[in-house]
Amino acid sequence: MLPIVGYTNKLTVAPGEVIDVMASSFGAVTYRADLRQIIQGDVNPEGPGYKDHLVDLDLGGERAAVAKPFRPGSCVLVPGQGALTSLQDFTLAAVVRPTLLDGRKRAVLSLPGFATIGIDASGCLTGEAGGQRLTSARPLSLNHWHVVSLSYGNGQLVLSLSQDQDAASAPPQAQTQTLDIRLPTSGAEECIIAASRGPDGELCGFLDGKIDRPALFNAAIAPETLRMLLGDFALLRRQRSLMAAWDFSQKMSTQQICDISPYQLHGRIHNAPARAMTGWLWKGQELDWKLRPDLYSAIHFHSTDVSDAGWKVDFSLTIPEDLKSGVYAVRLVPDGDEDAAYYCVFAVRPPRGRPTGNTVAFLFPTCSYMAYSNHRLGMDVPGTEIGMGRAVELDRHHMFLQDNPGIGFSAYETHDDDSGVFHTSRLRPIVDLQPKVKSFLGGYGSNIWQFNADTHILGWLDAIGQGYDVITDEDMHEDGLRLLQRYNVVLTGTHPEYYTRNMVEALQGFTDRGGRLMYLGGNGFYWVVSFNEEMPGIMECRRSEAGIRPWEPGHGQFYHAFTGEYGGLWRRNGHPPNHLCGVGMTSQGFDISEPYVVSPDAQNPRAAFIFDGIEGASIGDFGLAGGGAAGLEVDRADPGQGTPDHALVLASSTRHTDIYLMTPEDLLDPTPDWTGTQADIIRADLTFFETAGGGAVFSTGSIAWAGAMAWNGYDNEIARMTANVLRRFDDDTPFEMPEG
Prior knowledge:
Blueprint: E1 4-8, E2 12-13, E3 18-25, E4 30-40, E5 51-55, E6 63-64, E7 75-79, E8 90-98, E9 106-111, E10 115-119, E11 124-129, E12 132-139, E13 146-153, E14 156-163, E15 175-180, E16 190-193, E17 196-197, E18 203-204, E19 209-217, H1 223-230, H2 233-237, E20 242-247, E21 256-259, E22 267-270, E23 274-277, E24 298-301, E25 315-318, E26 326-334, E27 342-348, E28 360-364, H3 366-371, H4 377-380, H5 384-388, H6 396-403, E29 423-425, H7 451-463, E30 469-472, H8 473-479, H9 481-484, E31 489-491, E32 498-499, H10 501-512, E33 516-519, E34 527-528, E35 530-531, E36 538-540, H11 577-581, E37 583-594, E38 596-598, E39 618-619, E40 630-637, E41 648-653, E42 661-662, E43 685-690, E44 696-699, H12 705-709, H13 717-729
Parallel strand pairs: 2-27, 28-30, 28-31, 31-33, 32-34, 33-44
Antiparallel strand pairs: 1-3, 3-25, 4-5, 4-6, 4-26, 7-16, 7-22, 8-13, 8-19, 9-10, 9-16, 10-11, 11-12, 13-14, 14-15, 17-18, 19-20, 19-24, 20-21, 21-22, 23-24, 26-27, 29-36, 35-36, 37-40, 37-42, 38-39, 38-41, 41-43, 43-44
Helix pairs in contact: 8-10
């Protein structure tokens, strides 16, 4: 287990700015904190060795370690603003589509302390008011829409449930339960949609399912009338008894929930449920919610949604003005045990508006870190061991995730109802965003992934004495080319898979205008993701069509709620990675990596600087990531997908193992011959080309490249070739496009 975990409120911070640290005890009594620059995070004895630097900064000495809970679950919170306190006769109504009925009690619509529509442990609808309960005769049906209501008038409480049948030609008959009672006139202070409050005042009873068109009336409305009203907002608005009607199709890209009644009882979402989701009236009429928002008036809530752990700040620190740009971590040491230390990793970016003088930038792929944050691929995905070709290795970080599911999921998991996780957040502990952590997918050897694999590149920059700045995906998303234009060279990490439109266009603009890009990874620039200015720290990804994906968004739900853009692959959204960097994803396998076989293009004089001091018919038959320089996830050149005609394919890997399979977007006919030993298309292409603006691009097309760079303490031909490229790319002399 991890005796202490924590997180910061930012993954990027500039000198002079303040960063907050939140920590929680999971067994620790006390802790102390220090600040470290992370240089090389791989602890493999065959690697270059772990390395960090202590920053001389007082972070306040020993502190008490306080336990703080995870509180997952999404809902809508509506303050009553005094309008709900004098309720007498009433009707609560909604259209609900449960996606999980597993024996837990759920709330659909709640006026805490007054009345609630819920679902009991047996899946039946319940209505509670005045200390009394009604229960439906039959349970709700999973993945079907139901019109539900609870009303009170003339001393009678009425619970109503009607289910829509897909093939029904007429509205179904409502089943009703009635009870004669007398209600108190205390009313409520708030309305909660998809949850309620427990005796301690905390939110509880979170629904897994969709809700559409929730409404509140100050009169008892007959069930058959409610169905007609909920199906027509214009008619609903004209009801004199209407107190609130929440239209989820309005302001879908925000946290706001709009009440279209005259009372204007607006609310806000909690823990980022999925918006822009197909509603009760959607029958496939339109696939883009922007064109028919009225059909997308549902929200999908989950008991496992997390957007912000919401922990109280333990302490804050101001980044010293003279602290150089780099990757840092606040290290939390519980009860004096340094072996159990937890690292809250973040980047110190260059000062805002003021260049540092460095001409090289390392692009810290925080979007990809967020996508993989707290992933459980080796524990919850049975096929992972097959894809690795070996048994899964588990350590205390993985066990912590299993013991604490409330920490929230990665974009590779599904919620408890098997629907995909659209949103991931950095405002919570990310236990795999630390040095010294092993993974499942890193191949034989070091078996590290994402951040830890990227420290092989940071360690190499340190080993050759190269000055550099660190900029994050969020920095590039916000500042674009204004930030990138400070540099001659931008280096990527090993797996920059997730990109916003701002990021793709900034990097393309950089190379088009003379910038030099060193893409030192594989499966880059693959998935479309988006941010939301109202909800900083959260990222949306909808895996629409094709691509290697653990889930799909569901019919009609391919467009992002945050931005309205079509989700899925950049290859299908006008920015194929081949156009940006010459290569694009072609296969993955997590066992053995291969060397590159040098091609005739390597003899082209344009590539002479790359092969300076490099000899032999193959390169990279070694490495810490699978034993070779080409592997794990590999990219190929393909003119049909945008690889420039003048690009040089300098070397290619061959005959990967049969664990390597073709990507779905290329596998049009699923015959058995699309495996690593049989398909030439499964390869990593080492690629170089110049751009019209005097820039250039060097792409390795392999996640394993950096693991080969780190082999033998960075003294090898792969590290030497990478240094050759960096040296020429950092030279101001423009590259020239070849004639013809």
